Amino acid sequence: MKPRLASAAVRLLVLQGSMNHERLQGIGAAVAIEPLIRDLDGGQNGQRYRAALARSAGFFNTNPYLAGVAIGAVARAEHSGAPLRQVETLRSAIKGPLGSLGDRLIWTGVLPVCASIGLVCATLVHPLVAVAAYLLAFNAVNVAVRWWGLRAGWRSGIAVAAMLSQSVLRRAVKFVGPLAVLSIGVALPVAAEMLTANFDTSVRVGTAGVALATAATSWFLMPSVGAARVGILALGSVLVLGWIW
Amino acid sequence: MEPNTVIGLLLWGTWVGLDLASIAQVMINRPLVAGTIAGAILGDAQTGLMVGVVLELFALDVLPFGAARYPDYGLGAVAAAAAAVGAPGLFGLGLGVVVGLVVAYAGEIGIQLIRGRTSADVRRHRTDLEAGDRSTIYRLHLRGIGRDALRATVLTALGLGLAGIARFAHPTTVRTAVALSAVATGVGLGTALLGGVRMARGSRASWTWLATGIVAGTIWVVVR
Description:
The complex is a heterodimer.
Chain A: H1 5-12, H2 26-37, H3 47-56, H4 67-79, H5 84-122, H6 127-156, H7 160-165, H8 168-195, H9 201-225, H10 227-244
Chain B: H1 3-20, H2 31-41, H3 45-59, H4 73-84, H5 91-124, H6 126-130, H7 134-168, H8 174-200, H9 204-223
């Protein structure tokens, strides 16, 4: 049996293409797992293939960068003839921990670090070089994590939970979390200096005041209201006052 | 704006919109990237970078976790660059951010609309899905991607239109323009600061890392 891991890895790039409120990533998960289950008994017209595809198209949601771990593991479990109940349990049990791990690793770890790298680079080199640095830094991790995840999932099959508990990702999260906080700290004064370079001192002081007031008030507002709405409200007020005054 | 530039921005905006969730998530949707490239298409990468940086600070408030609601700051950055490039001095930054935030918010609404449509599509084909019909699965998936591409193209077009209107009706006084830029920058910095504080919450070591970062960044700025 030769797994079509490369084909599945490419399809995982569009995992969220048909994201919906009914099954979240379910349809995309079925598209991604399809090359890995073609070899099930009976082939593409067989009952096992269709049943596995139908299961994969059910409700599914996890971190897209680590989804390959679940897809690989479930495909391997289908191949190894694990009982139906065990496959379904694996599929529903793995997505939560993977989501949590992936969100901490990528969204609140690698991404803020790379954004900060981009910001700092922007003060040193041409903007397009800064953009390239941002994208290269992020996607080096992106590609490595996605490919590792799919292969590790396929290798582990039903034992994927044990593999994850000892994986390098657990240690990486402990390292990348503080690095992300440190990076945001570095980026704040760098961004402030870059954006206010053309302001005179009084405007800079005003900007700092707005920043502190935003952080203080938004502590209560932002989880429900969101930064975009806060920004629209604040800037809309300035525009209206400007026109009136 | 030249027709080639408009076409370039529409193509870029569509790709940026798809990158938010549907295709690859290689982070070209991040405002710093989307705004800078849009600025380069318009002939001024530096201005694109500036509005991109402000919107990047806003974007640190919410991260695109799968089922969460999040504004499309990438599409916002494309529109923001279109509004800011060519505007005189400080007029561009604040104006660009206003346009960018409105488009980002419209992007959030657009995402919910297309997910609702895809949900209805999925419900209509439940029987085929439960039978494991491969062609139905592929069709639903492609239609979902198509809807998102349409969302991104339409919102980019609307954003470019809004940028044109905003530049035509921009605040006429320097005082308003400066206030707009200062408030946009201030709210962005405050949002990013809050993002850092939220990440550091609950751990004394994290607070130390955040403070260390701010001190290191300040030293970097002073030394430079």
